[in-house]
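3.2 Worked example (two chains)
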Amino acid sequence: MARTSKKKQEIKRKPVKIYYVGIYARLSVDSGDRKNESIETQVEIVKAFIAQHDDMVVYGVYTDLGKTGTSFEREGFERMMRDVRARKIDCIIVKDLSRFGRNHIETGNYIEKIFPFMGVRFIAVTDNFDSMDISGQNETMSVNLKNLVNEMYARDIAVKVKASKRAKWEQGSYTGGIPPYGYRAEWIDGKKYLFIEETTSDIVRKIYGLFLSGSNMNEIVAWLYENKVARPTEYHKTGQVFCADGQELFQWSRATVRMILSNPVYVGNLVQGCTCGKDYKTRRRHDVDASDWSVKEHTHEAIVSEELFLEAAQKFEKSAVYCNRDGFSKAVPTEEDLFTDVIYCGECGSKMRRVAVIKKFSSRDMVRTYSYKCPKSGRIDSLNCPGRSITMGALTDIVKETIRQEFTLSGMRPKDLVEMNEREMETLKEKWNGQLAMIERKLEGITKAGSEQYLKYRSGEIDEKGFRMAKEENDKKADSLRAESRDITEKLREIDSETARKNHFLRTLMKGSKKGELTAEIVRTLFERIEVYPGHRVKTVFAFKRSEFLSGGVAE
């Protein structure tokens, strides 16, 4: 049998794998346009890299400006990871490893474990790192070494920043941002010091006077409103201590009044470094042990005397005999907040908050009762809302009855619906996968045709112009098919994501119906929104429409 020429053999190629890329860029400190340009430079470097690869399509750009690399708790990064989990992204590209992270343990965990498990390709352009091209241990060791160097740099910077701050604290310098109400801040010889601001300091003295004469928080707030005293927020924005005629006046919050009555800055002392401590790895704010606080006495002029300040502190101590600093009794355990993040006031649309009341009986037993209240209810300014509160017990009964009626009226059986949902998903995916296979066959045909045309050109059957025209036509058809392939791939990802969400919803229904109990997870899964109106009228908005499950399909 005659041997067939290799040039005439059918050229086959694997289906084109298209990567949907998430570009990630990060910068530690935001200090003006130059920094913004640096973020843009990172993105441009990555885009230039992508332009050289036909198998890459930019899905989105994710940036974090003013965010440290020692923690992965960054808004842009978390948004990117949500898209990764939703299978919208299967490739992440950064300018270099330090832009991704400076914690070598966490960075290595993502690159070596999390991303491979999720099927995500990771590329650091200027470090010449591609997770698809690692050939041996040396490359892995090189990446780990770079990550370790990045972390050592971050740790060194963190130590220097803390040492610099502590030196300023020892010198009585104020290192905070906006100065406390009643003071102004001035820079002297490179350090920031506090000085009394005459008008606002008079307001601070009046607040102490009212509190020590027997006024409660609500009465102090009412006095401030009646005398048109602008809130500290408005004062720092406008510089106006009192609200001018024609301007809208807002009431002070009780928390702001309490802060003024309990802040030792008003007796001339600076207590710093007590709540802003950050671990260089996690970068999470946490309480610092009192022994590590920086306490400097008489660093600036006092607005109130120590006697008045201690008298106010004693009043607070008496009112908190049964409560800790968060306002909850130490002796009575707290219950789960079932409706957090989903309960709203039907009148004004504000998110309602849970409040607790502790009752002590003659038997010395204590019990905590909960209710949900509109934060604008009872205000004395124009933001006052007529909405009323509702007890957690009453709301729980109403929501349980709503769920029961939804089951009864729809005749839904969550277990059957889970199975039906998965069957429908597989049927729909088969349809789209069939179209993908057809597109791949067409691409193979175009490649084969291109090879045959090239052979004809080399043999002289067609001239160069004819060959180029045919090639351009083939390229247009191939580009159109690849675009169609990307659209179908995106549809398949959406189907998987929607199916997972629906199954989670249905399994949560089964869990709740079997136990007959409500949990915060069940409520968040079942309901998109719960609105409370006067007279214990409640409107519930389910996270899914009943028709979505009764139809059994996923929208194409």
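3.2.1 Second chain
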Amino acid sequence: MKKNLKQIWIAFIPVIIFILSVLLMPFYSIEARLSDALYAQLNGTNRHIKLITVDEETLAEYGDFTSWSREKSAELIELLYEDKELAPAVVGMDFLFVSEADEEADDRLVKACNTGNVVFASNLVYRGMTKQDEEGARYFDSWNVEMIEEPFEALSEVTESGFANVHIAEDGCVRYTKVADSFEGASKGSFAYRVYESYAQAQGLVKADIPKSDSKGKFTFFYSGENGEYAHFSMKDVLDGTIPKEEFRDCIVLVGAYAPGFQDAYVSAIERGTPMYGVEIHANIIQALMEGKTAVALPVWIYLLIGAIIVYAYFLLAQRQKLIPVILEAIALSGIHMAAGRILAKNGYTMPQLYFLLILFFIVIYFIIEKYFMERFRRRKVLSTFKKYVAPQIVDKLAKDGEFTLKLGGEKRSIAVLFVDIRGFTPMSESLQPEEVVSILNEYLALTTASVLGNEGTLDKFIGDATMAVFNAPFDLDDYVYKAILTALAIRDGSDKLAERLQEQFGKTISYGIGVNFGEAVVGNIGCEFRMDYTAIGDTVNTAARLESRAKAGEILISEAVYHEVESRITAEPVGEMELKGKSKPVKVYRLIDIKEN
């Protein structure tokens, strides 16, 4: 129950991180790049939007733009509207003609515009200032309009105008704009919207659609064309007749700067390497208005609610799963999230992408650590405990490469078997406290275990106060019969020291009896599917057990097979033939004395 509660509370951590990241937007630039790439709708430019550009060729022909007379602009408009049948639907002049200059040229420009449908650019001068809301609370309005720079009065009377300000996002890119802004209580439309509105009226529409916008009047627009993709023509070529005016019939014609010297180029949201001229950005905005390719942010509370529920449920589920499903589900959720973003964008809403993907990534990383490294730690801990009950070699092999499988069955192999039993343990235990008896037994079994493992044997089992060990199983062991002999001698030496200490401490002592045999036996997992024991069975094992039972206190008995295998390296004396339980014939037995010095 406590574990489940812990899992439930831990699952709130990624939810809180997700909510805070969405609200604070710490990686705006990365988020913007991801969203720009995901929401891009570059489905081609509208053939009814065309640009007449004041490019380097035009400047070379007519000189620096600042030295031009406004007669050139008048001449262009006169040319475009000379034949009403071939005239454009609307002309958008992306230049500021704020103050009067040459009276004659200005009059010609006014007369030219009076014969056509022309929209001029104006400019909003923003300067942030502190304001008060209706409740008297102070706030800083960074979008405060201090003044408007509009076409000179005579021109304003015969044309429409709209502010041509390009709104730059925090990362320096242009991806949103405004339909209108307010100045001294009056609404002022944008240049792109005014052109779009004039075009809609020219096409017989009662009113142009107004896109949804946020609380600050902003909306995201999706680009249709990259740099240079809109049909554009040099103003020089239009004026000298190289480009026929029929090219612009019933079109939206935008006239604007198209040379570096104007400093009217910006980083677009779709192409960061090459700046896009302002007139092309206005063309993209107009097409977005025409085709409904605009959007506002999905209400943050809706996004946070849905996202938090998904993150919480995913984290809870992941705690109960293996790593591969956790990763696959994260990939699937990422795909669904991005697909949902694209669908919403086509329906007028955007939502953040980065933070949901990041939280999924960090959840996966968390579970890689938790399920892999922590699982390895827990596994080692379990295996360490497991070694106290099962032969350590078996556990190590399982942990290392899994070649040894826990299944019922065995194999016949040649092994050495050692049995050791405590002599005098029963009478001693009758005179001591139970805690003392257990302590002595544990100390003695620790001795036998250390002796077996120190000589690379496999500790098979404890049988009361007896210990069984095998050598050369479950894995091959070099010189295993001799290592069984070394184990017996190590137990003897350790037992002698232990006996002396017990005599001093309790006034009683214990000894040992050891039997060692060598031969073939069946080795494997014996038992049933839910409880098995890795052990050795057969006559070789039984004989070793019988030798141990016939051994006197402090005596190590070995079989003839063991003696002949290592006789050149040990000192032993024949005991004679012994009748052993279960054996039809007497068995020749030797008493192990020691190993020979090299």
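3.3 Remarks
The chain has 19 helices and 26 strands.
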